[in-house]
Design brief:
Strand content: 15-25%
Helix content: 10-25%
Number of strands: 20
Structural class: alpha/beta
Distance between the termini: 15 Å
Number of domains: 2
CATH architecture of the largest domain: 3-Layer(aba) Sandwich
Number of helices: 12
């Protein structure tokens, strides 16, 4: 038996069959509506600001609604097209304080490349004008990719007409203005508001209640910025804050069968040549040449990105002290671990469980990396190279890393894909957000978890926008989700 306690202080509990109590929260007698609600990114951000779930959530995808229901049980859900939902009917005469819109962005994004666009999907944003005309929300907020501003007509091949870029977008803004709304737009970066991701998106705020539009001030900045050094802002949250370093990082040289036997997990082996190249270049840039490599328990960590390189020597990766780059609908991030052992002339190493900073008594022995990887060939004899390593060799040794005059050997290299929970953390979702099962206990496929994550709004941004523009709705603190399981003894367990 599995139960789920509702979040946000509503006190509702699902029964073991997935029955969901429905009631509206209506802060100060007004509704909050999330169109294109997806798995709940914007709704969660709004909840972080107000302390309450949104009243109405609309999405055509039943899988997305499953996740939204699990985390926002007191919300009224509509699993249908936004065009099939009658704003007047669903609002029931109640005033609307906020209507949020996150229309599908695939057919605007540059990631779509030169593929044909879908006219109907590109036109979904018009539903915001429908809500504005029929129920007149005090505030409308819309999120999309930066290319949303290029919204224009398509030719017969369903490709944007270059000379008419932005025409439809300007008509959209004009219609909101004709309906009595002041409209402002900005591009915001999630890392500026505490999320460990550099994801940048277009945001629009429109309001008709005569109050000024307020854009939230950033709370975070790069660690080397003047604002951080002066203590005015917090440093960016690095990707490492969301990574579980206790999870195994299987060797790139082990077979899939060996990894299954050692760790009980599935892993793709052998790795593709492009992946080996990414690993090598990442280690060179973020460990070997990095004056401050990220080292935990004698493992030097970096991230690789499974995106196509546009230049021969481009490094598709990053150090994990920085916020992760944009998370999309597929898992494109791998964690690389270079396993270090102190290098002695005898070839004897030290216990891998010993933290790097304790291997010597001298201070700062993990501060700088000055050497390069060394390829090993033949019968264990080494051959140094003066160029960056292009491909990881298939032998048992990789080279030496000199750390402020002390030699360490990279004895192995591990790789694993980031877990969905880690990706959600990088997007700024709270730790208690439920992603692996729904309100009835049914498991939620890993692929769907990642898809929902990549398509989600980063919660810290809508939270900041609501606090800045609708402070009268920010009346409570968000209460986290509570999972309740029943053990074989019948005892209920709360977590």
């Amino acid at each position: 038996m599995w139960l789920q306690a509702a979040s946000g202080g509503r006190g509702c509990i699902f029964d073991g069959h997935g029955a969901m109590p429905q009631r509206r929260n209506m802060i100060n007698g007004e509704l909050i509506v999330d169109n294109f609600a997806g798995g709940g990114g914007a709704s969660t951000g709004i909840e972080m600001a107000t302390g309450y779930s949104v009243d109405i959530a609309i999405n055509h995808d039943p899988e997305a609604i499953r996740m939204h229901k699990t985390n926002h049980p007191s919300t009224k859900h509509y699993c249908e097209s936004v065009w099939d939902v009658d704003p007047v009917k669903v609002c029931g005469g109640h005033p609307v304080a906020l209507a949020w819109f996150s229309p599908d962005c695939k057919h605007f994004s540059k990631a779509k490349g030169g593929k044909p666009k879908d006219k109907n999907i590109r036109g979904l944003a018009w539903v915001a004008c429908r809500w504005a005309g029929l129920v007149r929300p005090r505030v409308i907020m819309l999120e999309n990719v930066e290319e949303f501003k290029t919204w224009g007509p398509l030719n017969r091949a369903h490709r944007p007409i270059k000379k008419k870029q932005g025409v439809t977008y300007r008509k959209f803004v004009s219609q909101l203005q004709d309906l009595g709304y002041e409209v402002q737009t900005r591009e915001l970066v999630a890392a500026d508001y505490g999320a460990p991701t550099m994801r940048k998106r277009f945001f629009l705020i429109a309001r008709c209640d005569g109050r000024p539009i307020t854009w939230p001030e950033p709370t975070h900045a790069p660690v080397d910025s003047d604002a951080v050094k002066a203590g005015r802002l917090k440093p960016y949250a690095g990707a490492y804050t969301q990574i579980d370093f206790s999870l195994p990082c299987p060797s790139i040289l082990d077979t899939s069968e060996e990894i299954k036997q050692k760790y009980g997990i599935r892993a793709v082996r052998p790795l593709a040549e492009k992946t080996m190249r990414r690993i090598a270049r990442g280690l060179k840039k973020f460990v070997i040449d990095n004056p401050e490599p990220f080292i935990v328990d004698r493992k030097a960590y970096t991230l690789i990105q499974y995106h196509s390189e546009t230049a021969v020597h481009e490094v598709r990766g990053q150090g994990i002290r920085e916020p992760i780059m944009t998370v999309d609908g597929s898992n494109r991030y791998g964690l690389v671990a270079g396993f270090l052992s102190k290098f002695y002339k005898s070839g004897t190493g030290q216990d891998l469980r010993e933290p790097l900073h304790t291997v010597t008594t001298s201070p700062g022995h993990f501060g700088e990396v000055r050497a390069f990887l060394v390829k090993y060939y033949g019968q264990g004899t080494g051959q140094p190279v003066t160029e960056p390593l292009d491909t990881i060799p298939t032998h048992d040794r990789f080279g030496l890393v000199t750390i402020q005059g002390v030699d360490y050997q990279i004895v192995d290299i591990g790789l694993r894909m980031l877990e969905p929970k880690e990706l959600y953390g990088c997007q700024g979702f709270p730790d208690d957000y439920i992603i692996d099962h729904d309100y009835s206990g049914k498991s939620y496929p890993r692929s769907e978890q990642v898809k929902r994550c990549g398509n989600a709004v980063c919660p810290p941004i809508p939270a900041a926008m609501v606090r800045a523009n609708l402070p009268e709705l920010c009346v409570a603190e968000r209460t986290g989700n509570i999972q309740i399981t029943q053990e074989q003894t019948g005892q209920l367990k709360f977590a």
